[in-house]
Amino acid sequence: MRRRRLKNRLLGLALMFASGLTCTSAVAQVLLDLGRTRLKQRADAVMSLMAYSVVPDLASSNLSIKDASTENPSVQMAQLGGGFTLSKSVPLYLEGAVAYSRYDPTFVASEGGESRQLPARWNTVTGTIGVGWDFPITSELVFRPIVDVSLGKVASDLKVAQYLLGRALDRNIEFLDGGSMNAYGLGGAVMLDWEHVRESYSIDVELRYTDIRLQTFGNTFEAVSGNASARTANIWARYRAPTGAYMLDRPLRYVLEFSHSRYLGSQSGILGFDYLSSLGTGLELDTSKSSPLYVTRLRAVLRYMFGNNVSGVSLGLAASF
What are the backbone dihedrals phi and psi of residue 175, each rounded to the nearest 5 degrees, phi first? Predict the structure, then answer.
């Protein structure tokens, strides 16, 4: 079995939802009256959602959750990541992932006898890097411990517009400062990776448990400081075999995938589910003979995802080097 492998997987594509926001002096005054307790609850939710993003995970990497009453997305996540082992002689494993998510909490505030719904859309960007080592159990099975480090940044749409609002209203709106936070994560993972490669087909199965602890730091506003745990257990499997057709002088393969993730940390249940599963099918093009960029395979997989009270479809794209 060829031990050197490089997986640079695009773990998910999600539909991003953008919405304009108009803020007048009256609305800004209402923002000043929002209670810190409710703001802290929303901030805790953002930290828990960040727990989804910092873990390299196929199932939760391409989510778009909609509000049933309005059909407007309230949570969207997308993740790009991959990992590889240098070689059989140097079994150093490296992984990395970057993720973007958008969370749309709505505050209901009142000013006198008038009630207003105030959207406070928060954008999160996270990055995770991991370093591990492969300990072979058999010629096809390795045990892989990994150390992971994560960084995350949350900024609300109002935070992004703070400078303009400050000029227009000539005041410092505390809520805007509270809408931003920085977080870091420390932890790791253990993995069993089985690669069964034959000329006519190949099977790859990974069992993984990840535990990353998140903590706010730096100039994060005190009202939204906190911590969260990102604990996930998942299994992922892929079967590849030739279709009988040829493209670029190489066999065109079909791909079957399965994944199941169980969420055990702060993210468990926050979106109404504590597990996600996916079933996928697609095609893989062997580009090793003709690609000038050392890309050996291109893959497109259509996935059906389901869990507690949630289901949907996604399209995943991937490249191997």
Answer: -60, -35
Over residues 240-253, the pLDDT tens digits come to: 999 999 988 888 99
Neighbours of 19 (CB within 10 A): 11
Phi-psi region of 217 (alpha: psi -120 to 50; beta: other; left: phi over 0): beta
Using DSSP, state whether 19 is helix, strand or coil: coil
Cβ neighbors of 295 (< 8 A, separation 6 or more) are 287, 319, 320, 321
The Cα 109–Cα 226 span in angstroms is 24
d(CA 56, CA 44): 21
Could you give the C-alpha distances from 101 to 13, 61, 75, 81, 283, in angstroms and in order?
12, 9, 7, 15, 28
Continuous H helices in 201-293 = none
> Is residue 16 scored above 80 in pLDDT?
no
Helices (H), the chain: 25-32, 36-54, 157-160, 162-169, 174-178
Using one digit for the tens of pLDDT, what is the confidence trace for 190-207?
999 999 999 899 999 999
Most confident region among 61-65, 219-223, 260-264 by mean pLDDT: 260-264
Spatial distance between the Cα atoms of 6 and 83, rounded to a whole number of angstroms: 7
Q: How far apart are CA 232 and CA 219, in angstroms?
A: 29
First vs last C-alpha separation in the chain: 16
Q: Which positions ≥6 away from 276 have C-beta within 8 Å? A: 59, 60, 260, 261, 263, 305, 306, 307, 310
